[in-house]
Amino acid sequence: MTIISGLSGAGKSLAIATFEDMGYFCIDNLPPQMLTQVAKLFSLNGSKVDRAALVLDARAGDSLSYLDEALGELDRLNVLCRVVFLEASDEALVARFHSTRRTHPLTGSANLVEGIQREREILAELRERADVVIDTTSLNVHDLRRHIQETVLAGELQDQILMTFMSFGYKYGVPCEVDMVFDARFLPNPHWVPELRPLTGLEDPVRDYVLSMGQTQGFVERVVDLLTYLAPSYLAEQKRQLLVGIGCTGGRHRSVALAQTLAGALEQVPVVVTAVRHRDVGRKG
């Protein structure tokens, strides 16, 4: 059993989604006093839940005081439990709350910074007993997902390979860490379409433009066939992580759309877990 906790805005929602993608049964905002009962329920004969991830955090309010007792009971029941704690700097958390316009769960009449500080105090003891602490200050959503997969969940990829698709721009150099590279510059460049230039491959108009090209479908099918063919061989050689680079000129349009498309297509392959990173999508030059 994995308990995910941490500061509001630090990435817990993405963390629980990443665990769910790995086949975990997930519960968000579980009251701590229910933890023992849930663990017992999962251990019953006939239960189909063999891996669970539960989010427990400051939203529990005063009932968070039950957590120590509940964790002690899990120890007595011989339930293996690890705690993953996510945090970030005050500056990063403030920026995230401002960008999403969400209300911090502990602000009340206090300001945002005071709410963050209060939450740190409430969760300080849980952070101290965490098995893994992840600082998400400098991580975007793709980096955080990959970090969780490559660290917290890496040992569980026993019969699967993690394929990460990294889009990049050739004008900024080929990433030195990639295992293989596919060049998307054979496709017409959306940069030269005025209404598409300010957009990226993460947005529907650019993605639809790229995927509408006659060459694109054949390219995607061949790459998917190749990687599907290679995956079992990599696993046989104990290679459980593969970084696939998809490059175009600036790394904002074609490569981004194709990386997203390829990752989605490979998700259907049982032995493959996918992740996506976009190195240069934020560059304007």
What does the model show?
- The chain has 285 residues and is an alpha/beta fold.
- The protein folds into two domains: 2-155, 3-Layer(aba) Sandwich (Rossmann fold), CATH 3.40.50.300; 159-278, no CATH class.
- Helices cover 39% and strands 18% of the residues.
- It is built from nine helices and nine strands.
- The protein has helices spanning 12-21, 35-42, 67-76, 90-100, 112-128, 141-150, 204-211, 214-236, 254-266, and strands at residues 2-6, 25-27, 52-55, 82-87, 132-135, 161-169, 180-183, 241-248, 272-278.
- Strands 2-3-1-4-5 form a five-stranded parallel β-sheet, sandwiched between helices. A four-stranded parallel β-sheet has the order 7-8-6-9, sandwiched between helices.
- Helix 2 (35-42) links the parallel strand 2 (25-27) and strand 3 (52-55).
- Helix 7 (204-211) packs across helix 9 (254-266) and helix 8 crosses helix 9.
- The chain is globular, with a radius of gyration of 22 Å.
- The N and C termini lie far apart (46 Å).
- The mean pLDDT is 88.
Taking all residues together, what is the mean pLDDT?
88
Segments where pLDDT lies below 50 for 5+ residues? Answer: none
Strand order of the largest sheet: 2-3-1-4-5
Instruction: Outline the biggest β-sheet.
Output: 5 strands, parallel
The SS-based structural class is alpha/beta
End-to-end Cα distance: 46 Å
- Strand fraction equals 15-25%
- Give the SSE string: EHEHEHEHHEHEEHHEHE
Integer tally of domains? 2
Radius of gyration: 22 Å
